[in-house]
Design goal:
This protein is mainly alpha-helical. Helix content is about 75%, strand content about 0%. The radius of gyration is 20 Å and the shape is flat. The N and C termini lie far apart (about 75 Å).
Length: about 100
């Protein structure tokens, strides 16, 4: 017999996540993005642990791919957050202008 409980949990989490994120005001997107970067770091650690326990060639390939994607996701998130925060900084006045 097929167990559908993991599918139900996944669908409920996906629906709940969509509903929560859709209702976030625009002003809170930067702090929310910064918090999600922390989660991406945890995903990267999990991928490295899984890669460390890999034994077969297929497991090693999938683990390496997971680590590479998780690293790109975490670094990209921090780059985007830094650019978003840069939009809120005051620009420097031009030299010679008072």
């Amino acid at each position: 017999m097929i167990d559908f409980n993991p599918l139900y949990v996944f669908l409920l989490a996906a629906f709940t996540g969509y509903e929560v994120i859709a209702r976030v005001p625009v002003i809170l997107h930067t702090p929310l993005m910064s918090g999600s970067n922390f989660v991406h770091g945890i995903v990267l650690v999990g991928a490295m642990v899984a890669l460390g326990k890999a034994t077969t060639g297929l497991e090693l390939a999938i683990g390496f791919f997971a680590v590479a994607l998780a690293a790109m996701n975490a670094v990209g998130g921090y780059v985007v957050t830094e650019r978003m925060l840069g939009m809120f900084k005051k620009s420097k006045p031009a030299e010679g202008a008072k």
